[in-house]
Write a structure and sequence with these properties.
Keywords: Membrane, Transmembrane, Transmembrane helix. There is one protein chain. This protein has 298 residues and is α+β, with helices and mostly antiparallel strands. The protein folds into two domains: 69 residues; 199 residues, Cathepsin B, Chain A (Alpha-Beta Complex), CATH 3.90.70.10. Strands 1, 6, 7, 10, 11, 12 and 13 form a seven-stranded antiparallel beta sheet that branches. A four-stranded mixed beta sheet has the order 3-4-8-9, with no helix packed on it. Strands 2-5 form a two-stranded parallel sheet. Strand 8 and strand 9 form a beta hairpin. Helix 6 packs parallel to helix 8. The longest helix is centred in the N-terminal third of the chain and has 25 residues.
Length: 298
């Protein structure tokens, strides 16, 4: 009600200001003009304060969230999770305490030259060896489940295997058709080495990756070679025995080993060093590739 009357008062002041401007002669009536100008300004200030106060429950949290995100995107992540995603990971958020920097020292293993398409098993080898498990990339490459569906180029497009069922195509040579493998066969293979210590939280929250890093558990993930969201033009649809799937030839796997307030750190089997990427970019790539993540909890 107060806001209503103040609004009317401000409108009246505005009308009086316009009227006084018209009546002012060349010499002035400037005192009359200045008085109404001051009154109008005061009324506008009062109305603004009341409006902001009434709506502070809406704009203040949004402003604080924006500031917090700029200062630290990881700490702000819980605030940004959709409610449907937040509910199952709420206990994680309560237990999670952000650190300024956490970087784990995991073995760095290169997939080349033996495994041009073997990033997934090479990243798995890094994960298992971090926990003292003797597992070489070549042994894992031999043991990973395979989808032997032959490659066919038809009028309807490509017919090939399903990476959710096993490794698709040739892992050892780029001269033959091939693709990769997803989390399901990788988790099954990891379980033959680490049993029930393997934790496949694919489809869950990106937030959980940081929780495991805090607990000294590197995380195997599927991402892409750009480590950021890819355009739709980078994807194609294959037909498989289980139905159509969308794939990108930029699919990649790395071992996440750390984070700080800006970057996420990972061992990349394509290079002989630990790399980093902006957290937001890496998250978008991970989500686009199906939220695939595996760790080992001793």
């Amino acid at each position: 009600m107060v806001l209503y009357y103040l609004g009317i008062f401000a409108l009246m002041m505005a009308l009086m200001l316009v009227y006084s401007m018209k009546k002012a002669d060349k010499r002035g009536s400037k005192l009359f003009y200045k008085t109404h100008a001051v009154l109008f300004g005061v009324c506008c200030f009062i109305v603004s304060v009341i409006v902001l106060n009434n709506y502070k429950e809406e704009w203040l949290p949004q402003t604080k969230a924006w500031i917090k995100h700029q200062a630290n995107p990881v700490r702000a992540m819980a605030d940004e999770l959709p409610s449907a995603e937040l509910e199952p990971v709420f206990p994680l958020i309560e237990q999670f305490q952000m650190r300024s920097s956490v970087v784990l020292e995991a073995p760095i293993i290169q997939q080349y030259p033996q495994l041009p398409r073997g990033c997934e098993v090479t990243s798995l080898a890094m994960l298992l060896q971090f926990h003292g498990i003797d597992a070489s990339k070549m042994k894992l490459a031999d043991e990973i489940a395979k989808d032997d569906t032959p490659y066919k180029q038809t009028e309807d497009g490509v017919f090939f295997g399903n990476p959710a069922k096993g490794f698709v195509g040739d892992m050892y040579s780029l001269s033959n058709p091939g693709y990769g493998v997803y989390h399901q066969p990788i988790a099954e293979l990891a379980e033959t080495y680490a049993g029930d210590k393997v934790h496949d939280f694919s489809g869950g929250s990106f937030y959980e990756i940081f929780k495991h890093i805090n607990n000294n558990h590197p995380v195997w993930v599927i991402t892409n070679t750009a480590f950021k969201k890819l355009p739709k033009s980078s994807f194609q649809t294959w037909k498989t025995p289980q139905g159509p799937i969308d794939i990108t030839m930029k699919e990649h796997s790395v071992l996440v080993t750390g984070y700080d307030e800006t970057f996420i750190y990972f061992n990349d089997p394509l290079v002989n060093k630990q790399r980093k990427a902006p957290i937001d970019d890496f998250e978008e790539a991970w989500v686009q590739m199906g939220k695939q993540a595996i760790t080992v909890i001793p």
